Amino acid sequence: MDTRFLYPLESCKIIHLLRHGQAEHNVEAEKDRNALLSPHLFDAPLTDHGHQQVENLRERVVSSGLLKRVELVVTSPLLRTMQTAVGVFGNEDNQPNMINKPSILALEVARDRNGVRPPDMRRNVSEYQTIFPTIDFSQAYIFFHIESEEDNLWRPDVRESEEEILARGLEFMKWLWKRPEKEVAVVSHGIVLQHMLYVFANDCDVSVRHELCKRFANCEIRTVVIVDKSLSSSTEN
C-alpha cells in the first residue's frame, strides 16, 4: 500500500492554478516565435477560441461547485489573464442569482515574464479599471517599491531571468500562505505558474513532480494542496 499522510485542515490551503485562455500572441508564436517581438501584440487579448475556452471552464467551475468554495482570486494584471479571471470566476454582469462573488485581486507579482516582448507589457492601471470595474488594483504593487500608473517594471532590452521568476514565485507563495482564505484561485501565465510549483517541487516524489510542474495548456486549471508541516507538527505535540 502506498504511504499517505494525514494533516489537520487548519494547516492546509487549496490553490487552483489557472493559465489564461488562448491569446493572440499564442497563435502568432506558433507560426513564428519572432512574432513575440511585434508591438502589434502589445498586451495581447484573448482570441475567440480563448473566450470559448473560458466559457467552457466557467461551466465546469460552476457545475463542480468550485465557484462556491473559492474565497479569493488573484490575477496577473495583463489583459488576457484578467479576461480569464473575470470570465471564469467573476460577475461582471451583476447577476442577482450569482452563487458566489469571490474578490478578484490584481497583483504585479503574478504577471508574465517581464521584458523585451510587447505581449508581456501592461496598459495603464486606469485603463484596466475602466475595463474591469470589479477587479481590485489597490494592492497591485505590494511586492515592489514602485507604484505607477504606467508599466515601469517592463524593460525593453532585458528579459527577466528564470531565477528572478522563481524568487517572486517564492515571495508570492509566502504572502498567499499568510492570507486568511483557505481556498484560492491564481490566474497567471504558464512559466510563472510552473515556477510557483517549483517552490514546493522538492517535497514531491519525482514522478509527481514531473506531472505537477509540466507546461500548462491554455485555460488549464491545476489544483494543489499546500501544507504547513511545522503547524501540523505542533498540533501533534
UniProtKB/TrEMBL annotation:
Superkingdom, natural source: Eukaryota
Family annotation (SUPFAM superfamilies): Phosphoglycerate mutase-like
MF (Gene Ontology): phosphatase activity
InterPro entries: His_Pase_superF_clade-1, His_PPase_superfam, PG/BPGM_mutase_AS, PGM_Phosphatase
Gene3D superfamilies documented for this protein: Phosphoglycerate mutase-like
SMART domains in the cross-refs: PGAM
PROSITE patterns named among the record's database cross-references: PG_MUTASE (PS00175)
Pfam families: His_Phos_1 (PF00300)
GO cellular component terms attached to this protein's record: cytoplasm
Entry's family note: Belongs to the phosphoglycerate mutase family.
Designated name of the protein: Phosphoglycerate mutase-like protein 1
